[in-house]
Automatic annotation (TrEMBL):
Residues 59-215 form the Uracil-DNA glycosylase-like domain. It comes from the Bacteria. SMART domains: UDG, UreE_C. It comes from Robinsoniella peoriensis. The lineage of its organism: Bacteria, Bacillati, Bacillota, Clostridia, Lachnospirales. InterPro entries: HI_0220.2, Uracil-DNA_glycosylase-like, Uracil-DNA_glycosylase-like_sf. This is Uracil-DNA glycosylase, family 4. SUPFAM superfamilies: Uracil-DNA glycosylase-like (SSF52141). It holds the Pfam family UDG.
Amino acid sequence: MTDHKGRISDNKCWTADHKSQISDHKSRIFREIKYRELRRQIRECRACEELFGYEPRPILFGNADARIMQISQAPSRRVHETGKPFNDASGQKLRHDWYGITDEEFYNPDFFYIVSVAHCFPGKASGGGDRKPPKVCAGKWLLQEMELVNNEIYILVGKYAADFFFPKSNFTDLIFEDQRLNGKPAYVLPHPSPLNVKWFLDHPAFEEKRIKEIRYEIHRILNK
Ligand code: SF4
């Protein structure tokens, strides 16, 4: 509907746009409030204290509007001690060699939301290596985070995280094909641990080709 100069229509459009912006703004604030409460609850969680035999230290990093949500298996002992995720040789390889970004970019909370299927270091197994992460954690916390964090893409690091979301799929197939998770694009990576030598020898196409495609997408999302 317009008058002879088109003013009524313009006003209606403007009003509709304005209402929509206010509604978006309100839902963003509501989501942010819910997310902050969730983050507080996660940081205070001690549910696995008896299982671990020490006080758990839940690790999560990033803001509710971070562009990329990276999900791995569980924090290492070093991360447990420092409170800083991927603060080790695996993290160096991940952000420098694979993502091609600086430490400042990786630890920018508006860029990356860094979390794990289990939020705490699960302790050392008697036979060596870390214990399996407690299964309860993802259902208790991670799935809620995935609903509240407004990321654009997911990156799953390692077989444990890949199996959690895609239990019927072959791990290597998941790595070499684009995936979707929670309605968003998702990329699966092998674990960047320096001990993970054989997989890379068996799959040279990962470093020759596949990681370049994923890196391109990360840089596009970060507007590099
Ligand atoms: S692993 Fe998860 S459920 Fe267990 S104490 Fe840590 S945050 Fe809580």
